[in-house]
Automatic annotation (TrEMBL), chains A, B:
Cofactors: Mg(2+)
Cofactor details (free text): Binds 1 Mg(2+) ion per subunit.
Catalysis: reaction(s): gamma-L-glutamyl-L-cysteine + glycine + ATP = glutathione + ADP + phosphate + H(+)
Top-level taxonomy: Eukaryota, Viridiplantae, Streptophyta, Embryophyta, Tracheophyta
GO cellular component: cytosol
Entry EC no(s): 6.3.2.3
Pathway participation: Sulfur metabolism; glutathione biosynthesis; glutathione from L-cysteine and L-glutamate: step 2/2
Alphabetized InterPro entries for the sequence: Glutathione_synthase, Glutathione_synthase_C_euk, Glutathione_synthase_N_euk, GSH-S_sub-bd_sf, GSH_synth_subst-bd, PreATP-grasp_dom_sf
Identification of the protein by name: Glutathione synthetase
Length: 477, 477
């Protein structure tokens, strides 16, 4: 008679032995090193199979030729802890912020006034405002409006409160990476969670990619021209402009002066002229020039001023029914600081400027445009403020001041270039929202997913983290 | 009023202009170079997104650390032409060959006799036969038998006939790569087929991966122990052998002497002892030792002898009903050369040996074990035959002689390391079959998918192609 064939290993026995010691939550020191190596190995295999890959900078052609010099994305091996109540709060706010962006975008005068001083100091914002002004002049109406936005949050360690860092309304990235990371962490915890005392279901589901695609598809349907294409504006020269109808212009680029390089040659052929043409057209813009302007830090700083959120028409539009019955109350809550943009100030506010010169460690100074990495901290912040005061020009309007947040840190295992290291990191969690309306009909307004970026805390300088290099997800606690 | 936004490009216009010249089938010289570059670019992007990737040998750690040093698989940009009638024939033969493998595997005496001379000349085959003999001795019955097999074919240019090169019964690889390539070519033709005069539906569907997984899953069900695992034997030392029940042993390794390295140290701990233990166990083996032996070239050469296929019990088993009613007739057809293993001969056949010494260019000499790359051609073949004749030993039993096939060539665009080149290639198409039975009940017996390997014909030496480097699919003509 044949004997049954059997197999065991340390891992299998550990799984069946419930009395074996479990590491306490996120205490990677107590994880068996052999087990840890298996998890790292599997994370690398998963990343390869699921295209969680980037071009390896050390390989010469990796940036220009696809399919060569690929390496897994730098990643955090396990999800970072995040209080469930704060997570719920952030998710519930997504549709509120979607709606807020839309309402603010309709108030052309507010946008022009908020950015009037910035216009003088910043050529790029000035160009955007010119296009916006032209649309106001011709009374351009956008019946179909769609937003793919992302609000970024940190948890302040001292107050344990959820603070919004910023809201992104153009070229909101990391949706795909966020979804892939969720897939990786859920997969790892499904297999190894029992040894780590972690449950894969505590990593929230993530639909950011599917929901973004659905929003584009539904917007295309609303446009109601089966022959119309979707134009994706990317950071490579592409200027073919007649023949094929366009239903949606999706801006994956256009948020930085670098994306408008040819103006010096000829305005007639410039990217600014193309942007104006797109804005004038009947195509759906994701985002419109107005949505784009709402995403400037200056406008967000204005919105954080007492009383601004409460002004007509952001929260009270008489005689109109809104899908969110509690929207007014919620926004009033935002304004009164229950949850808010972490405190933001204009450099016109001389009291705050004085305070920042005295205690620069409590502030971050940011250019009001999109794209992080240009923040000013510490002694540089003090010197820059003094220089701006001395010059007495309008240049200060290109910046805002922001309360510096000191987020909680957590231990993490960081995997980069096939190697792993441990360290304490801070994280910024971004919640995606998608929005689509046609006139009074709201077709989509939801929270769609998330992404988390971490950075080793020792090199952290505060505010929006420059050069985030490692992605993560959250584990609800 | 807003104007519609429109876009065109040379590509879009070409699509709508039906009068534009289309390149004739597979004549890549007539393909617009800009279009070709776009197709190559998209093939590289698709490969990255869908994990059609391998480790780049030029990156040091790529072979040992997953997720680093990845590069797209060398690939043929477009499918190669293949006559539809031959393709159908090859696909229809898959379940016939599945069944044939199973029936031959049941004739222990035939396997031992066919390989009796080889046993003396080849230590590896001798080991396999020892295990097989032990199973015959204890009258070991395998009620549940499963096969994942692959038959490889070429089309002979002169006769335009489909010729089977060999049949693989252990560790049949390239199922995943075959499916991915089908996905790539169908995707490229969906997008660019109209410019090339090619229809993506002419690239046959490919389910090799799903069907293999399904066969494993169904075999696991038949084993009927919900706690039993599937053991995959791979080419790394793994020897943990008590505790967890095993339902299926899948051999991804074990087909070459290199996979049994430790015998010289101690037989008690050797891989051969593990193989024997697996074979003795009640676990389902994919393949059994008998299936493995059926896959040897010597047995296939014996099967190609006139009258052998017709012997009991391969085609006539009195009083039994078979799922394939026309099986007997088909196998008789195989035997009479309508389609057959391309002519195979033992080195005992002195007439053929004489002929091969006189005209070595018409023959290929092959070791009868698995794993290509060791074939002997031309003057080397003549010298080896003369040496063997002189020695007069049993060493000639380790080889078979095979009619050298001269397959048709076709023009191809070969993409490697992000660059592309053109050239004429020859191709070998492999048709996968999966098979599962439990006693008299056939649960699965199908053709499941395919893979195509090509090689630039200028370096082609005939027979099984050494060092296939570029994968392809077929385009039915």
């Amino acid at each position: 008679m044949s004997q049954p064939l059997t197999l065991s290993s340390a891992v299998v026995q550990e799984a069946e032995d419930d009395s074996s010691p479990k590491p306490s939550l996120f205490d990677y020191h107590s994880i068996d090193q052999k087990l840890l190596q298996n998890i790292v190995y599997d994370s690398l295999v998963w990343s390869t199979l699921n295209c969680l890959l980037v071009g390896d900078k050390s390989v010469q052609r990796s940036g220009t030729v696809p399919g060569v010099g690929l390496v897994h994305l730098p990643l955090s091996l396990l999800p970072g802890p995040f209080p469930e109540s704060h997570w719920k709060q952030a998710c519930e706010l997504a549709p509120i912020f979607n709606e807020l962006v839309d309402r603010v975008s309709l108030d052309g005068q507010f946008l022009q006034e908020s950015l009037s001083r910035t216009k003088k100091a910043d050529e790029f914002t000035s160009r955007l405002l010119d296009i916006h002004a032209k649309m106001l002049q011709i009374n351009k109406k956008e019946d179909i409006r769609m937003g793919i936005v992302r609000s970024d949050y940190m948890i302040d360690e001292k107050t344990k409160s959820l603070l919004q860092i910023e809201m992104n309304t153009i070229s909101t990235s990391f949706a795909l990476i966020g979804c892939l990371m969720t897939g990786l962490h859920r997969s790892l915890l499904s297999q190894y969670g029992k040894f780590l005392g972690l449950d894969s279901n505590r990593v929230p589901a993530n639909n950011a990619v599917d929901q973004s695609a659905e929003a584009l598809a539904k917007a295309w349907s609303e446009f109601n021209n089966p022959r119309a294409a979707i134009l994706v504006v990317v950071q490579v020269e592409e200027r073919n402009m007649d023949g094929q109808a366009i239903s949606i212009v999706y801006f994956r680029a256009g948020y930085t002066p670098k994306d408008y390089p040819s103006e010096s040659v000829s305005y007639m052929n410039s990217e600014w002229r193309a942007r104006l043409m797109m804005e004038q057209s009947s195509a759906i813009k994701c985002p419109t020039i107005s949505y784009h302007l709402v995403g400037t830090k200056k406008v967000q700083q204005e919105l954080a001023k007492p009383g601004v959120l409460e002004r007509t028409p952001f929260i009270r539009e008489s005689g109109k029914a809104w899908d969110h019955g509690d929207f007014d109350e919620t926004v009033e809550g935002l304004g009164s600081g229950v949850i808010s943009y972490s405190s933001l100030w204009s450099l016109e506010d001389s009291d705050i400027v004085k305070k920042a010169i005295e205690s620069p460690e409590l502030f971050v100074m940011k250019p009001q445009r999109e794209g992080g990495g240009n923040n000013i901290y510490g002694d540089d912040l003090r010197k820059t403020l003094l220089k701006l005061q001395e010059a007495g020009s309008e240049e200060d309007a290109a910046y805002i001041l922001m309360q510096r947040i000191f987020p909680a840190t957590y231990p993490a295992i960081l995997v980069r270039d096939g190697n792993w290291n441990t360290g304490h990191v801070i994280a910024e969690a971004g919640i995606f929202g998608t929005y689509l309306r046609n006139k009074d009909k709201i077709i989509i307004n939801n929270e769609s997913g998330y992404m988390v970026r971490t950075k080793v805390s020792t090199s952290y300088e505060g505010g929006v983290l420059p050069g985030f290099g490692v992605v993560d997800t959250v584990y609800l606690t």
